[in-house]
Specification:
Helices cover 35% and strands 26% of the residues.
C-alpha cells in the first residue's frame, strides 16, 4: 500500500505546523510539501499523481484558532462541491479508539488548503485516479495538546 502525506512549506517568518507534522512522521511514506503558490500547486499535483501509484493521500494544513483536528469532508470552487472519497467511518473509529479530539468539517477554508484539496479531488475524479484523498486541518502546534500522541499513533499504524 502506497501512502502520500502532504503539508505546506513554511513561509519566511513562520513555521507551518503541517510541515513540522510531516517531518515528524517516520516510516515508509512518501512525503511532499506544497508551495504556497496557486499556479505551482497545480503543477505539483500533476507531477505527484501522474504515475497513479498512491492508494491513500493524506493532506495536512494548519488552521489558526482551532484546538483539535478537523477532518474536511468537502472542498469548494465557486458553486462546485467535491466530497472526499475516503471512508470517514474508519477514520472516526480510529480517532475515537485512540481518544484523539476531532471534528468533522465542511469548511475547508478559502485559501491554499481548499485549493489543494479541490484540485486533488478534481484530479482523482476526472483522470480515473484509483487513490483516495482526505484533508485534515491541524491546529498550530502550541494549541494541539495531542500532537505527540497523534504522531506516535500514526507511526504505530493503529
Amino acid at each position: 500500500m502506497k501512502i502520500l502525506l502532504t503539508g505546506f512549506k513554511s513561509i519566511k517568518n513562520g513555521l507551518n505546523s503541517s510541515e513540522t507534522l510531516i517531518n515528524s512522521i517516520l516510516g515508509n511514506y512518501d512525503k511532499f510539501l506544497f508551495t504556497n503558490d496557486y499556479s505551482t500547486i497545480i503543477y505539483e499535483i500533476d507531477e505527484l499523481l501522474k504515475d497513479n501509484k498512491y492508494d491513500y493521500i493524506i493532506m495536512f494544513g494548519q488552521k489558526p484558532l482551532i484546538k483539535n483536528l478537523r477532518i474536511e469532508l468537502i472542498c469548494k470552487k465557486e458553486k462546485e462541491i467535491l466530497k472526499t472519497n475516503f471512508n470517514i467511518e474508519k477514520i472516526e473509529i480510529y480517532l475515537k479508539k485512540n481518544n484523539i479530539d476531532y471534528k468533522l468539517s465542511e469548511n475547508p477554508g478559502t485559501s491554499y488548503c481548499n485549493f489543494v484539496y479541490y484540485n486533488m479531488l478534481k484530479y482523482i475524479k476526472t483522470r480515473g485516479f484509483r487513490g483516495k484523498a482526505i484533508f485534515v486541518h491541524i491546529p498550530f502546534l502550541n494549541n494541539f495538546r495531542e500532537y505527540d500522541r497523534f504522531v506516535n499513533l500514526f507511526l504505530e499504524g493503529k
